[in-house]
């Protein structure tokens, strides 16, 4: 083979390997998906990253993928709902663009734990953008968005009273307004925006999630 052809080919191969390595190490702004076990996080992850509707099983580790959002590259990370992964999520929270907090609207038992995790996150003051998605609205016993918001607010109000009187709890920032019943909109005073949406992944109802990702990616 002609020497120059060989050098040319070698340069192309080196360039290709370099670009692959760079793509792997490039860090894109992140959108986190969290929430209780079985709420639909991984199903959503595959809808966003592969555009595929698939049945999923309980995750053993986080999934991540880079997606193109209106010509911006964004990394989407889906954490298993087990509390074990909560600390990993918290370490990403200060730098992420936003978080999608998935709920199974039929699983009332999971709301208490969800409220505790939301309370903790809000007391840490990150993430600044949270979308609480009330999933599985195709199911006959799914609770509606207003009912879920009210139940979460009641539980957070209870936590607010308990934790504010806990003198060992010194690092925690205040959640909500003093002397007022907790409402998610109060978090705007601390520059935290919490939105609610409802839908069903099996019915491909993810427009509000996509709009949320687009909006936070623009920032
Ligand atoms: N009926 C119904 N089922 C859904 C919906 N979204 C997800 N599922 C199903 O719920 C089950 C759990 O979904 P996953 O996405 O695996 O749940 P997950 O939140 O990732 O769960 P963990 O990884 O265990 O934390 C799967 O069988 C999904 O197909 C929905 O909108 N309606
Ligand atoms: Mg999962």
Automatic annotation (TrEMBL):
It comes from Stentor coeruleus. The chain crosses the membrane at residues 6-21. The lineage of its organism: Eukaryota, Sar, Alveolata, Ciliophora, Postciliodesmatophora. Signal peptide: none annotated. Its main location: endoplasmic reticulum. The keyword Nucleotide-binding applies. It comes from the Eukaryota. PANTHER family: ADP RIBOSYLATION FACTOR-RELATED (PTHR11711). The keyword Isomerase does not apply. This is Signal recognition particle receptor subunit beta.
């Amino acid at each position: 083979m002609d020497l120059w052809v060989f050098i040319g080919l070698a340069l192309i191969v080196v360039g290709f390997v370099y670009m692959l390595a760079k793509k792997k190490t490039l860090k894109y702004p992140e959108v986190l998906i969290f929430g209780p076990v079985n709420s639909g996080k991984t199903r959503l992850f595959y809808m966003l990253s592969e555009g595929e509707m698939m049945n999923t099983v309980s995750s053993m580790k986080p999934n991540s993928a880079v997606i193109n959002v209106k010509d911006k590259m964004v990394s989407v990370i889906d954490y298993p709902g087990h509390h074990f992964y909560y600390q990993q999520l918290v370490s990403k929270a200060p730098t992420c663009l936003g978080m999608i907090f998935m709920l199974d609207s039929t699983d009332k038992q999971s709301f208490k734990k969800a409220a505790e995790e939301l309370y903790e996150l809000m007391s840490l003051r990150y993430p600044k953008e949270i979308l609480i998605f009330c999933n599985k609205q195709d199911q006959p016993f799914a609770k509606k968005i207003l009912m879920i918001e009210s139940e979460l607010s009641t539980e957070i109000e209870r936590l607010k009273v308990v934790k504010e009187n806990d003198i060992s709890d010194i690092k925690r920032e205040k959640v909500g307004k003093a002397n007022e019943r907790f409402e998610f909109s109060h978090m705007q005073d601390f520059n935290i925006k919490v939105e609610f949406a409802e839908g069903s992944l099996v019915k491909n109802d993810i427009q509000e999630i996509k709009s949320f990702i687009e909006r936070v990616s623009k920032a």
